[in-house]
Amino acid sequence: MLPRHTYVRTMDLFTTAPKPPLAELIRPKTIDEVVGQRHLLGPGKPLRLAYEAGKLHSFILWGPPGVGKTTLGRLAASATNSNFIAVSAVLAGVKDIRQAIEDAQNSLDRDGKSTVLFVDEIHRFNKAQQDALLPHVESGLLTLVGGTTEHPGIEVNSALLSRAQVYTLTPFSSDELQQLHDRALPHLQGVTFSADALDLLKGFADGDGRRFLNLLEQVAAAAKGAGIAEADLEFTKNSTSPSLRRFDKGGDAHYELISALHKSVRGSNVDASLYWLARMLEGGADGRYLARRLVRMAIEDIGLADPRWRWPKRRCTCASRPRAMPSTTPGTRCRPSSRRTARARCPCTCAMRRPS
Prior knowledge:
This protein is α/β, with parallel strands linked by helices. Helix content is 53%, strand content 9%.
């Protein structure tokens, strides 16, 4: 009897199996079929060595959506011939964890098989739920594989982190998305894509393999319905809409992007400064927040080298003038920079906090 948390679903004679989406249809069945993540799965790399040895350790996969966290979790069980239990931290509670532990013990007693427990979005578990896993990961009853889009050092208990290795997954490159396209081609109903159309979809995907495959499937279905054998750039534009760039209001992506904007201004790169500013605005960042950050850059990164530059920047913080931000970002970049203001603030702050 399969554990109730597995992805396998029993069917009877009167149940119609749903047609799987393209991303599920071509999901890798072996390590060699996995696209990307060569820093973990290439020859001599940590996950490759663990999978080939058939002896897995607990680990947490940290990365953006659509880069293969669930796939690697499933392959962890098949590579070691282990029982596989999957739970979603969004829906599961302590009761579900206890049930998974009971199923794991039954599997060990009955078949002598160890269990790989895959917890999707593990950062959604609270402290009590994460603590419930500790003794069973410690004893070896469970090999924990967690998937998260948030920084594990912030969202996962330190006690659990000490028992699990953290591996970072990266978004797919253009060449890796091309490999996904080549693999999906036999399933696209005979529809092909021009080079320009593929480049457009790669840009819309923003490194997300699942999103890229969904777009391929969507355009291929539209082309098939229109009787078109090759989807060109114009047809692809008409049958899709630009996807929102990866961004979150208070998570990792937010701080990564604002850090990139800061570093671009500090490095005197006009094009990069405008790119990261536009990317945050396109992703839905609050324009007033960005205006305040530009004022801070003007004070901290330019500072006393040109004190007058702060005042035009302050006028741009008005929420009714969001279009002023792109026009002032290159100006901030081109000013002579001085860090004296920021450096002076540190000893002053330390002096105020020092006990009298």
